[in-house]
Amino acid sequence: RLARQTASPPAPSAGGWIQRCEMPKSLLTPGLVAAEDSDSEESNLAPLAETGLPVESEDQETEVDQDVYGFAITSLLRDAHPVAVGDKGTKWLRFSRLLLSMGTLFCSIGVQFSILCCTKLFVASKAAHDIKQAYNEFEIHMYGDDPDHMEVTNGHARGKREFFQPELFESMEPDRQVAICSMSFSEPFFLMLVLFIWTVTCLSEIKRACEIFALMVIYLPTPVQRCHQLAVMMRPDAEDEEERAVLRFQRHGFDPLQARGLWSIIAEQKSWNKKLDREKVVLICGLTCCSKVLVTGLVLLPRLLLTICLLWLGCRWILATMNFEEMLLNAVALQFLVNLKDLFYHVCVSARGKADLRMVRVRYRRPSVGPGAWTCCIFVFPFAWALAALVWVLVYVFFLQRVLPGFRWDIHDVCEDLIREDYSG
Known about the structure:
Layout: H1 2-7, E1 19-21, H2 41-51, E2 57-63, H3 68-85, H4 91-142, E3 150-153, E4 156-159, H5 174-181, H6 188-219, E5 231-234, H7 242-251, H8 256-263, H9 266-274, E6 282-287, H10 289-319, H11 324-338, H12 340-348, H13 351-358, E7 360-367, H14 371-400, H15 412-423
Parallel strand pairs: 1-5, 6-7
Antiparallel strand pairs: 2-7, 3-4, 5-6
């Protein structure tokens, strides 16, 4: 079989994209650097220097996420090609798995989007209407019900700061006092703390989507020549003769220098691979441009857009809450929407599908610019997400929120005594 493949490479097909390669574990597609635990580092790096590839880089191997997004990505990469070329042996089995994985993904996204729309229409909009009406009445009362003391912002009354009369709060009905002082805006620190937690939750999803994009699109190499597969995969325990391996690498888009550089590290890896129980592990070591576009457009982009919508709706709903307890409960309810991807994965994916997903690894090479720089990136960059969450909360509350446009921040001071009296233990 190998002789026939090396003698006559497969002809290009309109829909064919994927082919499994039986190669040793350490091999990457165009990334190509020396293997781990090498006895002769100089000899292994020599072929790579000739190709002009970066020598200072780090070998990385990571698992695919155990959720509907990871399941869809692996199924798309592993099953699309046999279905497209009409592999009679496994066509319908792979088609079923591809249909199940993509159906589960789009079902999860559809349910999340539907709940998102219904929450905005039936819950958040009603809460925003109620809090706008309550604050409008508060402004009219606290500024003496005098049109000269007021200005109109988006159709709602807002008092001029110099005419604020805090003593009028005592003449307000007790029920209205409690309602006003229970608004989320009455305790800015508590409000921003809850918003910060929710923002960090959403940014964790955005961060993961960006990490997968960097892994699949940036770090995973793309064959230098035209390749008719969606992904380059390999078995870590396979053994290939040199010429057959070199021809196989060339069919996947490598030039001869890169192919020889790959083979130069096979021998040293054989003994190490035999020590590992990796017979069922499949390594994704390269993606074509077509596959990167599909993964980005079908999986990562919908995930990113959905998370951004969740972030916006959650912040709006939390701001529109008229009760401190409900504000916390709303944040917990929103967390449920984020976790729907895990719920659908555990319910809709079979045990065999989960086991296959656990056996998939992504083998990639990330270029390095020096030990000091990587140390800085590793330990400092994650804090940028927390800083971004803090900046988003401040910008949203003070500039972007449309729940109470033109908010005067005049509730906290007049409600301080009432809150201390009602909420003191």
